[in-house]
Design brief:
The protein is mainly beta. It contains two helices and 25 strands. A five-stranded mixed sheet has the order 6-10-9-8-7, with no helix packed on it. It has a four-stranded antiparallel sheet with strand order 1-25-24-23, with no helix packed on it. Strands 2-3-4-5 form a four-stranded antiparallel sheet, with no helix packed on it. A hairpin with a 4-residue loop joins strand 24 and strand 25 (341-345). The protein is globular. 42% of the residues are buried.
């Protein structure tokens, strides 16, 4: 057999295997999802989505809105679950006079100082030419006082973060390339250029690498295990955190859905994850349609997965492109990449 024939057959074999894997990842054989509601659900806001959400206590949920790469500045809003799901745009003080301040607000995280009870908010933003982390103190009544901006040469196309101390956090790098065409090529190539970085208050260093579009990140209530949603492989991963803040992967679980941001229930340790149940439909907005939304609850035992259940699912009519979810005060808040925020009354949850 000629070498050219061998090479052709080999390349065809690799290509066909890639096609099969990519077909499964895109969910090409799926088109519709069945509606699943935990109770009465209502759209409460529809003005730029709520890419990430986080509960800060007392029924107050913060959310980043207006996510659009290199787009106009966005906002940080809050939902008061104890006051008729009232939506508030948070006032800001001490804000720098930059036209790209809060450009494309993305992943958010908070950290409360155990000594002073001060609450700090960290927001990933995507202005050109580099990503920034905007840091605020959350004051009462709900006001954001700008503290500082964190930059690092390694912060490029970052996605989500989890604070573990004052100006100390883990952060996911979604992709290597920031330029649109190269990013699309990377996404469709399946190359594992994503990673996880740790910022120690002064500089960032990579603590885990070789992942395909790592997305949401959070940490267990005891701060021992870091959870990462690897969107590109639909896999939830657990990493043991050591005293030097290095990470070692200890388990992985295939979820069968495009998992996005992760919120941790501080009481049960369960994970609430906004997900994309039909991956190929993430391009629907470019064609005038809306992708479906989904929320999964991941039950945890000893910081490892015991069960995954679908809490909420919608065909895109009421919740399009769900990216985040959190549970508080008997209600679930679901965020989306650009369309709307949904609040559901959760009537019943299966026990752990």
């Amino acid at each position: 057999m000629m070498w050219s024939t061998i090479v052709t057959i080999t390349l065809f074999g690799f290509g066909f295997n890639y096609f099969l894997n990519y077909r499964d990842w895109l969910d090409w054989e799926k088109d519709l999802v069945l509606s699943i509601n935990p109770g009465s659900c209502k759209t409460i806001i529809k003005d730029g989505g709520s890419e990430d959400v986080t509960h800060i206590g007392n029924g107050i949920v913060l959310m980043s809105t207006g996510f659009e790469f290199f787009g106009p500045p966005g906002q940080i809003k809050a939902v008061d679950l104890n006051n008729g799901n009232k939506v508030m745009t948070l006032n800001m003080s001490n804000v720098p006079s930059r036209t790209d301040f809060l450009s494309a607000p993305h992943g958010i995280t908070t950290w409360r100082d155990p000594d002073t009870d001060q609450l700090f908010l960290y927001v990933i933003c995507h202005p050109k030419p580099e990503d920034r982390i905007e840091v605020f103190e959350v004051l009462k009544p709900l006001t954001l006082k700008y503290i500082r901006t964190i930059t690092d040469p390694k912060f490029d196309f970052m996605n989500d973060m989890v604070a573990v101390g004052r100006d100390k956090f883990y952060i996911t790098k979604f992709a290597r390339f920031r330029e649109y065409n190269r990013y699309n090529l990377e996404m469709f190539s399946g190359m594992k250029f994503g990673g996880i970085f740790y910022y120690d208050g002064h500089k960032a260093r990579e603590v885990a690498s070789g992942y395909y579009m790592p997305n949401g990140i959070n940490i267990s209530p005891d701060k021992k295990v870091v959870y990462v949603a690897e969107w590109g492989t639909k896999t939830l991963r657990g990493f043991r955190r050591d005293s030097s803040n290095n990470l070692a992967e200890i388990w992985s679980t295939y979820t069968g859905t495009g998992i996005d941001n992760i919120e941790v229930d501080p009481d049960t340790g369960d994970l609430w994850i906004g997900s994309h149940p039909i991956t190929w439909k993430i391009i629907d907005p470019f064609f005038g349609s809306l992708p479906p939304g989904q929320v999964v609850r991941v039950k945890m035992q000893d910081n490892a997965v015991s069960e995954i259940e679908i809490i909420y699912q919608d065909d895109g009519t009421n919740c399009a492109g769900s990216t985040a979810a959190t549970y508080a005060a008997g209600k679930m808040v679901v965020g989306t990449v650009r369309e709307q925020t949904v609040v559901c009354d959760v009537k019943y949850l299966t026990p752990n």
